[in-house]
Amino acid sequence: NAGVMQNPRHLVRRRGQEARLRCSPMKGHSHVYWYRQLPEEGLKFMVYLQKENIIDESGMPKERFSAEFPKEGPSILRIQQVVRGDSAAYFCASSLLDTNGNTIYFGEGSWLTVV
Amino acid sequence: DQQVKQNSPSLSVQEGRISILNCDYTNSMFDYFLWYKKYPAEGPTFLISISSIKDKNEDGRFTVFLNKSAKHLSLHIVPSQPGDSAVYFCAAKSGNYGGSQGNLIFGKGTKLSVKP
Q: Strand, coil or helix: what is B82?
């Protein structure tokens, strides 16, 4: 998972606040994915983005969650009006579709705690 | 409904012996399978993968076996080392390209402990 950079690593928010998680993909990768891991669970796919496009958001909750991957800068996962159930580890991953499209590489995660 | 199942939450093995981690899946459309290793407070690290057109893939101490008829795959680690102690996740997907390329379906993981 070297190369995919996530920040912050740990974030504490009160209920009702907003959380913003950032992800810079590996150098040369233009495909970004966000996953969420709840305690004692496996990772659950949330969203797949390419530069300026959302390709697959089938795993995103319908409300309060949004993601973007602008032309310049990192990908952002934004959670508005956080609730306790949003407490989880959020992992970003990236891939280089053309030559190694079957493998995605994960960052070290951002741990969100809602108090 | 869980499409990828890892029925053993934990496994303990003696150093030097073989570790066998199992994974079952229900979706016959899955055509690519991956194993990831995860240490606490870190992201998953890719280990090895296998396409559905193969039944075995080997990389050093790691070998993945795929039995399509049984919808079962396993990861063999031999010889096991204490540094292999981690949580191992099985993941699957269908389709190499398009909107679901990164939509991996993960199992809940198996915690492997390798004792010296």
A: helix
Residue B98: pLDDT band by 50, 70, 90 thresholds? Answer: very low
> Given A40, A48, A103, which is nearest B46 (Cβ)?
A103
What is the three-class DSSP state of A24? Answer: strand
Cβ of residue A26 closer than 8 Å to a chain B Cβ: no
Q: Are A56 and B103 in contact (CB under 8 A)?
A: yes
Rounded to the nearest 5 percent, the helix, strand and coil shares of chain B are: 5, 50, 45
Sequence-ordered strand ranges (E) for A1-115: 5-7, 10-13, 19-24, 31-37, 43-50, 53-56, 65-68, 75-79, 88-95, 105-106, 110-114
Polymer length of chain B: 116
Structure tokens at B85: 């102690």
Q: Characterize B43-59 residue by residue with b for buried, 16 or more Cβ atoms within 10 angstroms of its Cβ, and e for exposed.
A: bbebbbbbebeeeebee
Q: How many CB atoms lie within 10 A of CB A64?
A: 15
Q: Identify whether the C-beta of residue A46 lies closer than 8 Å to the C-beta of residue A35.
A: yes
For residue B60, list its beta bridge partners. none
Closest chain A C-alpha to B78 CA, distance in angstroms: 23
pLDDT digits (tens, 9 = 90+) for A55-79: 889 899 989 999 999 999 999 999 9
Under an 8 A CB cutoff, do A1 and B43 touch?
A: yes
Give the CA count within 13 Å in the CB-facing half-sphere of A61. Answer: 12
Tokens of A77: 């996962």
User: How many residues comprise chain A?
Assistant: 115
Residue A100 pLDDT level (bands cut at 50, 70, 90): very low
Q: How many helices (H) and strands (E) does chain A have?
A: 1, 11
